[in-house]
Amino acid sequence: MARPRSTKQRKQYGLRIDPQLMRELAHLSVDEQKWLNELTEEAICDLLKKYRTSRRARANRMSKDVTYREYTISSTPLHLLESGKWRPEIVISSEREGVVTARPYADETTYLTEEAADNHGIQLGQDIIDGKAPELPGNDDDNELCNR
Length: 148
Description:
148 residues, alpha+beta, Double Stranded RNA Binding Domain, 2 domains, 4-stranded antiparallel beta sheet, two-stranded antiparallel ribbon
């Protein structure tokens, strides 16, 4: 191929892939004039987006809203497919003078059940509002690796 390889840092992995899929990918590589690695990374990013969207959609269906003081805490626990555990994710929102502000928070603590993660998320939101919890990083999808 005429295109130069990316200077992006890479790590090598050994995978077992169906030979027919690999042949089709090799043909696509030639047709699209892209490196196999480039197409593979594109496919992985698409797969991650698909599952990320699916998990968030499920979480949004199970969202729990609690009003605390003048704030609304929306808890949408995230199911971690790899471990089967749940991680609290919340959004704290408020309305002042007709302007709604919302800020997402995620806690890296994991729980065995969705209910436990949900309860922790609500308590965490209350602690943040009361100034009893340290500032946690918000969820920033713009920092995701596969942001295409």
